[in-house]
Design brief:
With 117 residues, the protein is an alpha/beta fold. It has one domain: Udp-n-acetylmuramoylalanyl-d-glutamate--2,6- Diaminopimelate Ligase, Chain: A, domain 1 (3-Layer(aba) Sandwich). Helix content is 38%, strand content 18%. It has a five-stranded mixed β-sheet with strand order 1-5-4-3-2. Strand 4, helix 4 and strand 5 form a beta-alpha-beta unit. It is globular, with a radius of gyration of 12 Å.
């Protein structure tokens, strides 16, 4: 599923990246964590990450882990310099006012699953 399709279906606000309905990178899996060490250790490449962390390290970890997109939940909004860095790295950033649990539930309903170890 394309990140643009996810953004449209969940009503997400795009902060960086091109995400029209058929645009954006493919999302193969989902992962949710607020611990960046967990993301590095367990997030599968090509996943969408749902988090409330909005600092610069999120972009660095997402790029290193091969994350396709980051959804900031609970209305969290990164600073402009974080968005600029995500654009440089080609990381799609999306925002939801809904709680992490709700966002993850909606992703699951769309058929996005976590990668089994």
């Amino acid at each position: 599923m394309k990140t643009g399709d996810i953004a449209a279906r969940l009503g997400l606000r795009t902060l960086s990246g091109k995400v029209g309905n058929d645009d954006g990178p493919d999302v193969r899996f989902g992962h949710s964590s607020d611990l960046l060490s967990d993301v590095l250790a367990h997030a599968p490449a090509g996943c969408v990450l749902v988090t409330i962390q909005v600092h610069m390290n999120v972009v660095a970890v997402a790029a290193h882990a091969g994350v396709s997109a980051v959804i900031f939940s609970s209305g969290m909004t990164p600073a402009p310099e974080v968005v600029r860095k995500a654009k440089e790295e080609g990381i799609v950033l999306l925002r939801s006012s809904e709680a992490t649990f709700s966002v993850v539930g909606k992703l699951y309903a769309l058929g996005i699953r976590g990668k089994e170890e």
